[in-house]
Structures are given as structure tokens and as C-alpha cells.
Design a protein that fits this description.
Elements (H helix, E strand, L loop, with lengths): L1 H14 L4 H13 L17 E2 L5 E5 L7 H4 L7 H12 L20 E5 L12 H17 L5 E5 L1 H10 L12 E3 L5 E5 L4 H6 L4 H18 L5
Parallel strand pairs: 2-3, 2-4, 4-6
Antiparallel strand pairs: 1-3, 5-6
Helix pairs in contact: 1-5, 5-6
The protein binds iron/sulfur cluster.
């Protein structure tokens, strides 16, 4: 039943055209393409969430990349942020492989579900406040349906704020590795986004990044009643 409702929600997301600026941008990028991907038939639509409907780890990103998720149709797939994300998820047992190149590449998530604050690729990776407001009901719907989630990792400040708003919570500080336990027992971990801007400048190092998922694994496993 839970997965059926998520399927219905995903179908609604993929058909969404509520943000005129983003609809124009995602479709233009899909038409014009990037030279290295000219053989690709770009997705060019809102990118649905991806993962295990019974997940205990929820990851909230910002929005699909123009030539990543907007090309492949899967969250964090086909761009450098995705390379960082799936390598860490694989390392800590949340994914069956570290590579994510396209739908149909065999990638499966275990106990992990990935969504985003906005589902359409925005120009300059910056959705507006109104676009985030329009997209938030989808995040609220997912949170309501993902009843097993115990740990949430937000990637970047915008995702952090979007999650707090979707949960109708007040402000909680954002910082890499900061943790907060919510009233329902869910642990929220904030992380810097693995964007090139952060990873190329050393603002986010591989060790800092892996530390987030190591901690998430400990917290998820603790909820199991198992020791590591
Ligand atoms: S960003 Fe969200 S609300 Fe806006 S068009 Fe895309 S799916 Fe719809």
C-alpha cells in the first residue's frame, strides 16, 4: 500500500508543470543538450525520487543537475555529485554498487531513499523561493509515506530548510555534521552539498563526506537493536 501511494505520487511529480521558468529551462536543456551527451535522449521532466520505500535513511538534495538528473531521469545520476553520493552509499552498505550512470545500470538502494527540495533542474542550480514552495507538497507527501525513516541527511542549506519546512519545524542550525534529534525521534544530520564548488575547493573533503554516512550507518544500525 505504501509503495502504491509512492508510485502514485511519483507519477504526479513526473507530470508536473507548475513552475513555468523551470519547465522552460529543463526542456530547453533537453533539446539543446551538451556536446558530450548529444546521443542521449534527455529526460527533460521532473525527476522522481529514487530508492527503497521501506528506507530508514532519507537523503534530501537540492534539485537535479541540468545534464545529470535532467538527462538521465534519476536523482544524482550522471554527474559528479552523484559520483560522490553513490560511492559513499555503497561504502556504507546503502547501495549495491558505487556507480550511477543511468536508469537500467543495475543500481539498487537498500534502506535508503533519495529525494530533493525541487524536482526540476533550475538555471544555475538555484530554484527560487516560490519554486521551492510549489514543490514542497511533494516532499511533505513523501515524508508522510516513508514511515520507517529514522535518519535524515540534508545536503546543503536549501535542502535543510526545505526539510524543516516540510516537517513544519522551526529553524535548526545548519552546518556540516550537525545533528538534531526531532520530537518523533528522527535524527537530522546536515551536510555540505557534494557540488563541484564544494569538492573542488576542499570545503568538502572526502573524509568529511564519508563521516556523514558513517554516522548515518551507526544511527540506522542502532535502531535495529544491533551493535556494529
Ligand atoms: S519544481 Fe516541483 S513544483 Fe515546480 S514544476 Fe518541477 S516538480 Fe513541479
Amino acid at each position: 500500500m505504501v509503495s502504491l501511494n509512492l508510485v502514485t505520487l511519483h507519477a504526479r511529480i513526473v507530470r508536473c508543470r507548475q513552475c513555468p521558468r523551470l519547465v522552460r529551462w529543463r526542456e530547453r536543456v533537453a533539446r539543446e543538450k551538451k556536446r558530450e551527451f548529444r546521443e542521449w535522449d534527455y529526460w527533460g521532466k521532473p525527476v522522481p525520487p529514487f530508492g527503497d520505500p521501506r528506507a530508514r535513511l532519507l537523503i534530501v538534495g537540492l534539485a537535479p543537475a541540468a545534464h545529470g538528473g535532467n538527462r538521465t531521469g534519476r536523482m544524482f545520476t550522471g554527474d559528479s555529485s552523484g559520483n560522490w553520493l553513490y560511492a559513499a552509499l555503497h561504502q556504507f552498505g546503502f547501495a549495491n554498487q558505487a556507480e550511477s550512470t543511468g536508469r537500467g545500470d543495475g543500481l539498487r538502494l537498500r534502506d535508503c531513499y533519495i529525494t530533493a527540495a525541487a524536482r526540476c533542474a533550475p538555471p544555475d542550480n538555484k530554484p527560487t523561493r516560490h519554486e521551492l514552495d510549489r514543490c514542497r507538497p511533494y516532499l511533505e507527501g513523501e515524508i508522510a509515506l516513508l514511515t520507517r525513516v529514522r535518519v535524515v541527511v540534508t545536503l546543503g542549506r536549501i535542502a535543510h530548510d526545505a526539510f524543516l519546512k516540510a516537517k513544519e519545524l522551526g529553524r535548526l542550525p545548519f552546518g556540516h555534521g550537525l545533528e538534531a534529534t526531532l520530537a518523533d525521534g528522527t535524527v537530522l544530520i546536515s551536510s555540505y552539498h557534494p557540488s563541484r564548488q564544494n569538492t573542488n575547493t576542499g570545503k568538502l573533503t572526502r573524509a568529511m563526506w564519508e563521516g556523514i554516512f558513517k554516522r548515518a550507518r551507526v544511527l540506522v544500525t542502532k535502531g535495529d537493536g544491533r551493535t556494529e
